[in-house]
Design brief:
Number of strands: 13
Largest sheet: 7 strands, mixed
Bound molecules: alpha-D-galactopyranose
Order of helices and strands: EHEEEEHEHHHEEEHHHHHHHHEEHHEE
CATH topology of the domain at 7-215 and 449-457: Ribosomal Protein S5, domain 2
Structural class: alpha+beta
Strand content: 15-25%
CATH architecture of the domain at 7-215 and 449-457: 2-Layer Sandwich
Length: 458
């Protein structure tokens, strides 16, 4: 199972309206026909926010919405990329010279990340060219991982053109690493679920080593995604990397406080593993070791006994060099408490998920409060939206994905779904700017979908 690559399915393109349309647009764009198609889904994270890059397990499921690419390998060494969405302009480059511009998160750069990841994995210097037409239906900049889905889809397209194979695990690891070329230092949740998802089940994703275990969700509840309509592109600001750096610094200070060799430590999970204590104990240690007043870069340097120069060049990312305050205690408390909530959520789902809906909801509510107060990755619109969702019958509602905008996920008893959707629609989406967001991208129930696939025409 662990060595299996993404499945290949034979399909009658004429029976799949989206594939058929893609094929037609491809023909008018490139004057030829695609050889195959690949898809990689977006995801909704049910619980476990901002902890994957700290080494902790998360609990996402794939959504039905995905990135779909029609691919034709070509003999020239040119990569020609087009998108069915006119907002995203065509792009073309030599397959052997794929520069990724970190200063602008343009759509084609995500494709190049996946492409480059495969190229580097196999150490190839002379890559074949390809014509690609991309069609995505994951709401963009909304915390549902449209960018990672594109990276994964491009990685799978490149692998297929090369006629090579890799396990889903390996693909997830390659794409996680190569997405860092965009400049954000995300964890591996999005890429892992995009490859490892299976229809009908959420997954507990564990890291180092990567593992995915089925989590059976309650059958009498549904998960509803609601878009705050505040766009958040994590590569366009430094919010995301600041949090990654705060967690890294907190890990180093905690390790130093406990007399561990702190300079090799990067993740909060490593401190717990080295000390061999529980998450609850880590919360107590955090309160002893770190103060809640923000740390200045100078104070961090004093605590670690390093210079500002060393802090900047050896620890901080390029886009966090000038950050003036680091809230280390709050961030570490969020991470350790959220990691514990994920384990509780999974345990409840193993025991009797349908009896647990109110308790699962409570964990989601606690997660939101921690994201809002400790991690400060919410925003007023997300807070308002979770309140509305709870008011109209969701026992639990929280921001999902990176935050600072994007979507919420709510657990809703199945029998309340129609009234819930109608009421949330009425209460949140009447405002003119929000009503401009296409309806299918605003508010919808979702079920665990399947992972990345290759389609061949039957
Ligand atoms: C983004 C990152 C993920 C994860 C989430 C927050 O989606 O890509 O790795 O860190 O944010 O949970």
């Amino acid at each position: 199972m662990e060595t299996e690559g993404p499945a290949t399915r034979r399909v009658q393109v004429s029976e799949h309206p989206r594939l058929l349309k893609l094929k037609e647009v491809f023909k008018s764009k490139f004057g030829s026909l695609p050889k195959f198609y690949v898809r990689a889904p977006g995801r909704v994270n049910i619980i476990g926010e901002h902890i994957d890059y700290c080494g902790y397990s998360v609990l996402p499921m794939a959504i039905e919405q995905d990135m779909l690419i029609a691919v034709e390998p070509v003999k020239t060494h040119t990569l020609q990329l087009a998108n069915t969405n006119p907002l995203y302009s065509d792009f073309s480059t030599s397959a052997n010279n794929t520069e990724i511009d970190k200063t602008k998160p343009l759509w084609h750069n995500y494709f190049l990340c996946g492409f480059k990841g495969i190229q580097e994995h196999f150490g190839l210097s002379n890559l074949p060219g390809m014509n690609c037409l991309v069609d995505g239906n994951i709401p963009p900049s909304s915390g549902l991982s449209s960018s990672s889905a594109l990276v994964c889809c491009a990685g799978l397209a490149t692998l297929t053109v090369l006629g090579m194979s890799l396990s889903k695990m390996k693909l997830a690891e390659i794409c996680t690493k190569s997405e860092h070329y965009i400049g954000t230092e995300g964890g591996g949740m999005d890429q892992s679920i995009s490859f490892l998802a299976e229809e009908g089940t959420a997954k507990l994703i564990e890291f180092s080593p990567l593992r995915a275990t089925d989590v059976k969700l309650p059958s009498e509840a549904v998960f509803v995604i609601a878009n705050s309509c505040v766009e958040m592109n994590k590569a366009a600001t430094s919010h995301f990397n600041i949090r990654v750096m705060e967690c890294r610094l907190a890990a180093k200070l905690l390790a130093k406080y406990k007399g561990l060799q702190w300079d090799k430590v990067l993740r909060l999970e490593e401190v717990q593993a080295k000390l061999g204590v529980s998450l609850e104990e880590m919360l107590l240690i955090t309160e002893d070791a770190l103060h809640t007043e923000p740390y200045s870069p100078e104070e961090v340097c004093r605590c670690l006994g390093i210079s500002l120069q060393e802090l900047r060049t050896q620890i901080l990312s390029p886009n966090t060099q000038d950050v003036l305050i680091f809230k280390l205690c709050q961030r570490a408390k969020h991470v350790y408490s959220e990691a514990a909530r994920v384990l509780q959520f999974k345990k409840m789902c193993e025991e009797a998920p349908d009896d647990m809906v109110p308790l699962l909801g409570e964990l989601m509510n606690q997660s939101h409060a921690s994201c809002r107060d400790m991690y400060e990755c919410s925003c007023p619109e997300l807070d308002q939206l979770v309140d509305i969702c709870r008011k109209f019958g969701a026992p639990g509602s929280r921001l999902t994905g990176a935050g600072w905008g994007g979507c919420t996920v709510s657990i809703v008893p199945a029998d309340k779904l129609p009234s819930f959707l109608a009421n949330v629609h009425e209460a949140y989406y009447q405002q003119s700017a929000r009503s401009l967001v296409p309806e299918e991208q605003r508010l919808f129930a979702t079920k665990p979908g399947g992972g990345a696939l290759v389609f061949l025409e039957a």
